[in-house]
């Protein structure tokens, strides 16, 4: 990997762990972050180089990975005045692993194509522990050849890697996954609030739910935090709010109602409004519990 | 087991399979059904005896199992003029494995106790294939001694067997499980309708969902039937309607809102209203798809 140059922008909870895996795998890594000093410290710890700007990062990279908060940031990092596209050689592959609107992906991809740069959208699922141990699920949209070029990088960061269709479809799948997860979490929160109100033996309840038709990944991951009101952040409420909103925008565009996701969004927004935006989205249980009092 | 006498009332989709396992395990089985002739044929096939009435069945049984549709049926079979309690010897244990309201369990249990008969509520989860292979999940409410007496029978019919608390709590846990399953199914149905409207590669979508935060037992069991609109009955829409209604009655009694379950009930009732009450509750996808057109 020593001669494959990867530029990585966005060293947050997820990005820092994903980039660390690329460094460990031997890729020649260059990083850039918006916050001054943050990239320097990270690069020192992980043996990476620091770019002076996104354009500088673009000039030093065969692959440009972005892992940031929204479509506006991806657009600025890739296409802004000092964006990576300005420095990148033709044929460089831009891999956006953020979760953004499919429409943004298509627009950014078209503008990159005008400069002979390829793009693939490759959002991930799995919280920070799975980012850390390289076992994320990665759903990629883009051309087959681009997917194949990116696959070695994906295999360093992820465990389940699925090419789901053309550009933008990675995001479409990701948004549906997260909206479904949010809806399952909302139902779980309400069920647990009812169980606690009925003074049920929650250990027995969880044993039954886990063995049967009520089981879900949300049950496995979030039931204990919800019951104990332990909101140590693995995935922020604010980020889940953003993802479910994006999914509902897509649903509105397709003229498909998705009331289960609307209901989850209402609870998530209530949690964020109560100051739990930075907390884990297990905090969805708080507004559910409050209504029951 | 040959000297342990079990009376079994209710030979529907679930009950016939559960009773067959008891017969195979060597219990001395007596059956009764409301439909004339049905018990005779089943008894002939499975080497059981047929009672002339619930009271006659009660007189021949150390354990009386009921697996019927609702609380009114359980009350009639156990406490009616020709009910099993009339014939049963003091100390006989009544095991109701139906799904009925916790309040009905408490009332029936109190009336049985007046006649020195014990009761345990032991509803199950798992559809007919798991009833057939004896791998149901059984959640039992009742006194510890009664649970221990019933355990050998439960082990013949179930795989995960949990004593969840005093009488009525088996039903409380069951109703929460089924309402949660219904809510997860509703969210899944809406997500799949959106995915089909967006012409996503559903095989890729299911691979991603199954690996991540959107996974659930409902996804594993119902996604394919929903996508293919194959409603071969494993668990009837009408029965799921009944269970979610009972859960919402309990929630109302506890003054706990459960909007995710209310939304699922609305879709299930729409499916039943469209003639899919006898179909599998994967039919919840039909009203979701109809709204999207």
Structure description:
The structure is a homodimer of 293-residue chains. The first copy, chain A, has 14 helices and nine strands. Chain A is of the alpha/beta class. Chain A folds into two domains: 5-165, Rossmann fold (3-Layer(aba) Sandwich), CATH 3.40.50; 172-292, N-(1-d-carboxylethyl)-l-norvaline Dehydrogenase, domain 2. Chain A has a six-stranded parallel sheet, sandwiched between helices. In chain A, strands 7-8-9 form a three-stranded mixed sheet. In chain A, helix 8 (144-157) links the parallel strand 8 (136-141) and strand 9 (158-165). In chain A, helix 9 packs across helix 13 (259-276) and helix 10 packs antiparallel against helix 11 (217-228). Chain A is elongated and about 65 Å long. The mean pLDDT of chain A is 96. The interface between A and B is large, with 64 and 64 residues.
Summary, kept brief:
The structure is a homodimer of 293-residue chains. With 293 residues, the first copy, chain A, is an alpha/beta fold. Chain A has 14 helices and nine strands.
Write the layout of secondary structure elements.
2 copies of one chain form a homodimer.
Chain A: E1 5-9, H1 13-24, E2 28-32, H2 38-46, E3 49-50, H3 54-59, E4 63-66, H4 71-79, H5 84-87, E5 93-96, H6 102-114, E6 118-121, E7 124-125, H7 128-132, E8 136-141, H8 144-157, E9 158-165, H9 169-197, H10 202-211, H11 217-228, H12 237-253, H13 259-276, H14 285-292
Parallel strand pairs in A: 1-2, 1-4, 2-3, 4-5, 5-6, 8-9
Antiparallel strand pairs in A: 7-8
